[in-house]
Amino acid sequence: MTSNLKILIVDDNEQDAALVIRTLAKGGIQVESRRVETEVEMREQLLSKSWDVVICDFTMPKFSALSALRTMRKLGLDLPFIIVSGTIEEDAAVEAIRAGAHDFVSKGKFARLIPAIEREIREAHVRAESAKMRQQLLISDRMASIGTLAAGVAHEANNPLTAVIGGLELAVEDLDEIVSAGQKRQAKTEEETLHLATLKQTLDVLIDALDAAERVRLIVRDLKAFSRSDDETTGPVNIERAIDASIRMVQNEVRHHAGLTTRYGSVPLVRGNEARLGQVFLNLIVNAAQAMSGTRFEDNEIVIVTDQASDGRVLVEVRDNGPGIPQELLGRIFDPFFTTKPIGTGTGLGLTICHRIISELGGEIQVESSPGCGTTFRTLLPLYVPSPQQEPTAAPQSVRRRGARILVIDDEPVVGQLIARMAAGDYDVTAVSNPKQALDLLGVGNNFDAVLCDLMMPEVTGMDIYQRLQEQPQDLRPRIAFMSGGAFTKDAREFLDRVPCPHLEKPFNRASLNTLLRELLT
Predict the structure, then answer these.
(1) In the CATH scheme, what is the code of domain 4-108?
(2) How many CB atoms lie within 10 A of CB 188?
(3) What is the pTM for the complete model shown?
(4) Contact 108, 86 (CB under 8 A)
(5) 234-385 — its CATH code?
(6) Which of 181, 386, 390, 510 counts the highest number of beta carbons within 10 A?
(7) Does CATH number 3.40.50.2300 belong to domain 404-520?
(8) Long-range pairs for 458-463 at CB < 8 Å and ≥24 separation?
(9) How far is it, in rounded angstroms, from Cα 372 to Cα 521?
């Protein structure tokens, strides 16, 4: 057993407390102790310091062992709790054990004290390790369930959202041309002036709706990114994008506690996982906001800063001007189950998980704080270093851009119809919503220049379409690109990483579609 122990002694008799300390000292144990004799004193000590053992007298004028045990349990602590007493009846001892006391020792038989402490500290460690493991499994299960649900919601939302954004964009472009032409022509009658004003008002409404739909797109994209928290792959991450996604996810929580500003420096891509980094920043932002709960909103501020550290790594700071953290607690904030929040507010695992994520990604997380001066969490992340370029492949056969024949395959008819409208005038688009029909159209002898295919479809997937095309002679094979709205399977993720095909995330706008088609048909 360790030769140093921090022991909280609950006893109204100073001499009895001194006897406990002398007994331990004779056994070779250095003791750091504090004696308390009221509930208020005990609660204050349990909140302000980490203790190894609680040794408590059974009866006191102002307090009792059962009351002390309840106080400790209310704070969510599971410390070895040993009762000492001059006299204790059997019924009282049984009641104390049932209430959660771990052992009791008679004041005249302190020879049992050290073995009892050693045993209970060992068992407390076993209980703590088992409870980390259980909590981690519970969190993992919940995250997996939430991730599956979020991915499904994002996937189902992205198809109609693609149609909403694309349709609004087409309507805005057409109406803007009409309004612009009308303004250049100048109305000659009051009726024409009124009609033009109505069209302009309608255009403004559509622009506002398009802006709102774009905000929904960002929310769905963030939801989709967070849903992939089980994806342990690492790659290039735009840290500003990851932080912005976290802010959007928690802005409703934060805005009631503090103002939030960002100061982004020019930093390179980091090596990491966007979902896991987003989880870290989300935790740090929420912690900063909750630390200022109950104080004046107008005085509270959270600032997020990005910069490049002197060693080349990317630095992210989450600063707040809240109450700060006492120095004696700073060394424990990353410990499992340690929390200064009220019971029921936190599990004490948030910062532990943040520390683990950053460490596994090869980074560091540090904290600087003092009472009254706020808190700063510093995260240092490694840069993304791309792998050596592969040997260049032969340039694809050039095809004419205007009038090229494109087959669009999507089990959502509205998406195919939208793409046909978006590409009208530039390409000859055939849209099908039945993947089996698409397989028939892609038989040998087809004359499509390119295929734009949804990745995840029932019965026949984009991967099946790709495989069918690989069976055709290379000089007759149309180029293929994929669309996806999320809800990837593991096979689908690996497929996208493996095949040299462009990929378009839903929902997309006309500019994104045109960029993809130009790339596909170059």
Answers:
(1) 3.40.50.2300
(2) 8
(3) 0.49
(4) yes
(5) 3.30.565.10
(6) 510
(7) yes
(8) 458/411, 459/435, 460/435, 460/436, 461/435, 461/492, 462/409, 463/491, 463/492, 463/495
(9) 61
